[in-house]
Specification:
By secondary structure, the protein is an alpha+beta fold. It is built from one helix and five strands.
């Protein structure tokens, strides 16, 4: 499986700082907020591969490993894991940088499936590699 993005050095697709409104009563960031950031980053990668609009159709595997804290800087990494005729699996990993950049903690990862869409919002074949 080769793709233009697979040859790039590992750099975050998205880097975000959670706001106080994103925190729950335990002092951690809401899981839904994290999923939203992952979906945004995955969508960026999927749209590049599809060369057009895509939609998230499934989250096949998801694991919360450690909490995200209020002052963390979140880096979201996403890369193509598998490619089908109309869909693709994008592996997404979230790393929190905390303590003034002294510590990096992998906080979650998941496999998201995106499908390429045509002008009628129906699945369309992915462009050739």
């Amino acid at each position: 499986m080769t793709d233009k993005l697979a040859d790039c050095p590992r750099e975050p697709i998205l880097r975000v700082v959670p706001a106080p409104a994103d925190i729950n009563s335990n002092g951690h960031i809401f899981g839904g907020w994290v999923l939203s950031q992952m979906d945004i980053a995955g969508g960026i990668v999927a749209a590049r591969i599809a060369q057009g609009p895509t939609a998230t159709v499934a989250i096949e595997a998801m694991e919360f490993i450690a909490p995200i804290l209020l002052r963390d800087i979140i880096s979201v990494y996403a890369n193509l894991e598998r490619r089908g005729r109309t869909s693709m699996g994008i592996r997404i990993e979230v790393v929190a940088t905390r303590g003034r950049g002294e510590e990096q903690v992998k906080v979650t990862e998941g496999l998201f499936t995106f499908v390429a869409l045509d002008e009628n919002h129906r699945p369309r074949p992915l462009p050739p590699v």
